[in-house]
Structure formats: structure tokens, C-alpha cells
Amino acid sequence: AVFADVGPAGGRMHTARSRNDEVAACIRYRFREDLLDAAEATLDLRGALLDAAAAETETVVPGFTHRQHAQPTTVGHLLASYAGAVARDTDRLLAAYERTNRSPLGAAAFAGTTFDVDRGRTADLLGFHDTIENAADAVTARDFLIEGCGAFAALSATLSGLSTDLIEGAKDGHVDLDDAYASTSSIMPQKKNPDSLELVRAVAGDAVGDLTGLLTTLKGLPRAYNRDLQRATPHAWDAVDITTEATEVAAGAVATADWDAAACAADAGAGFSTA
């Protein structure tokens, strides 16, 4: 198809290129979009948390330390605390994006090329804001994946804590999860199980596992290209998919949850928490 459009010049497409710098560029090209999609999901979650917090500023609820009644607080205060954590998760994802969005093209195999290519122009055409100066670094580096997966692992930890607070709140009768985020028991019809949030909570283990697997794969690799790198990216893609989806589910659960102000208030003074 290229030859049909441009003629013999199409045969020059691979000039000054190697699989090594092309693969590195493709990984960065995809991962930067994944980071932005995840950041957008965190913004939606933060919005849901802040909206719910604003609606529940006067809903008194028990606060806990060591999972024991400690001091009364409000649902708004609790949810806003997670909004602050999610804001930092967004910052981490965007910081990872900045270091991901750099072009390795022109590095060729790992020592550059004698062809007179304009690396800056290539980077600009592909939407990269900068190039990676050292050619060996450009084709070898996967630390941007480590940074991104670290951000996903941190985000998953935030989601895990939020899920547990909502699960415990549902158990105590403080909050009713929307039916779309719960399921029934196969044998006990009186139950409403917070399945979606349990799965969100479980994602933290998977995301940490992906980060650990990535670090283990990259440990000890010399410059420049090694086939081990092929086993690095599956960890990153898995972390992207599961954490972004979990963030979207958490946002929906928060936005549709129904807090029972009377039940919360009745429980807030238990255990001498107002003494």
C-alpha cells in the first residue's frame, strides 16, 4: 500500500531504524496514552469522591483506629481524605507520563546511525516532547515502565483502602451500595455482597505483583538490547488494564452509594467515642 501511494521511496521506510529503537518507541507511544487514560480515570474518581463528600458533610459517622470506634467524624471528611490521596495518584501518573513521552528513534540498534536524521523532527511528528540523548539508553531503558507501574501500584493501594472502608460501611449498615456494584448469594437470598469492591481491593495484589515481576525481569540487565525485555512489557500492560478498570469501578460505586445518615449517627457515639 505504501509503494502504491509513494512509489520507490516507500522502500526507505526502514532507513536509519532498527527493531530496537522502533520497539522502544512503540512501547512508549502506547504507555503514554495508557498513563493519560489512567489519570483521567483518577480525575473521575476524585470528582465522585468530592461530590459525595459535599453531599455528606453533615452525615456523622464513627471514625476508627485499629478498627475500633475512636472518634466521630463525617462521611464527607472520610471521602475527602481519599480524594486527597487520589490527587497524588494523579500527580504520580502524570510525572511518569513526562518521562515516558520521550523519543528513542534515531538510536538505531544502540549506537546511533550515520544517516543524517533529525531526531527532534521525528519526535515532534510523533507527539514526543523530547528525545533520549544517549542511544544505548534510548533502546535499553525501561525505567519509565517501572515508574509507571509504581504509580499504578500506589493507586491500587488507595483503591484497596477505599474499598475496605465501603465494604465495612455496608456491613455496618452505614451505606447501601447500588445493585450494579453488588451481587446476591447463590444460597442465602438475604445477602447483598459487595463483590465489585472486593475485586477492586484484590487488584492491589495484582498491581504490586506486576511491579515486582517487572523489577525482577529488569534486574541485572546489561546494555544494550536483551531479549529479556520482551518479558517486561506484559507486566506493564496488565497493571494498566486492571488498575484503570478498578478505578472506573470505584468511581461508579462511590457515585451511586446511598449513605444512611440516621444509622451512621446512631453508631457514631458507640464505644464511648464521645467521652
TrEMBL record:
Gene3D superfamilies, per database record: Fumarase/aspartase (Central domain)
Residues annotated as domain Fumarate lyase N-terminal: 11-209
Annotated GO biological process: L-arginine biosynthetic process via ornithine
Record-listed E.C. numbers: 4.3.2.1
Keyword ATP-binding: no
InterPro entries xrefs: Argininosuccinate_lyase (IPR009049), Fumarate_lyase_fam (IPR000362), Fumarate_lyase_N (IPR022761), L-Aspartase-like (IPR008948)
Source domain of life: Archaea
The keyword Transit peptide is annotated on this UniProt entry: no
MF (Gene Ontology): argininosuccinate lyase activity
Short name of one Pfam family: Lyase_1
Enzyme class: lyase
Keywords: Lyase
NCBIfam families listed in its UniProt record: argH
Protein name: Argininosuccinate lyase
Species this chain originates from: Halolamina litorea
